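Reply to dn_fold:

You asked what the input looked like. This is it:
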Amino acid sequence: MQSLSDLANTIIRQNLPAEFESRDNWGHTTEVWAGIDVRRDGLQIKTKRRKRQVNDGTWKLYRVRLIEPDEHLNIQLQNVRSLPDGRLEFDLAADAKLEVFARLSQWELGVQLVALSVNAEAQVQFRVTCDVGLKLDPTKVPPDVILDPAARAAELRLVDFRLNRISQVGGMVAHELGQQARSLLDKELARQNEKLPDTINRQIDKNRQRLRLSVQDLLTTKWGSLVEGRENRLP
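and this is what came back:
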């Protein structure tokens, strides 16, 4: 069913972490003494301490971006099974590649002591358990058939994380920065998982009109093949 296939593709793309950024103390400054201003006020000489803001502390920047989803995003429909109420239950699975960049800068009163970066590649798996049924719209003759999908469970999971490049001045600090980037990605995925099923169902509700088929359209779809569980990919 092309309408269901297109909707599944849209939902998965919208819920993958296409791009996000985290800044830990990035841009922090502190105030330092910068001399004295001297001016004459009549017979008096007045002075005023001059201050300025300078970079200071440990700056960390993390950035994650989805890599070419048109090429690397592989969506599959798996484990089709019939439910007692006549609905079909199935799993949607998608693997996606992410580009991860992390940078650390160590400043002390305006002087940069350390600057290093790491680049990594991550693989994320998106799995959704759905069921779908058919409803008839009796207000039309012949009646339209309405697909009625619902997400029952959903999870984003990090399955692979590889460091590709470490800046020349790296060592253990750079490796630690890479591990912190991985931990940050895990936390971001966990945060999205908390609301993922509800988010997907709201997206389905907004696209109900895309799931309406005429009887003729239904007869030309692969619904029968899905019922028999012979398809292992989205139609």
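Helices lie at 2-15, 69-72, 171-193, 196-206, 215-219, 223-228.
Hope that clears it up.
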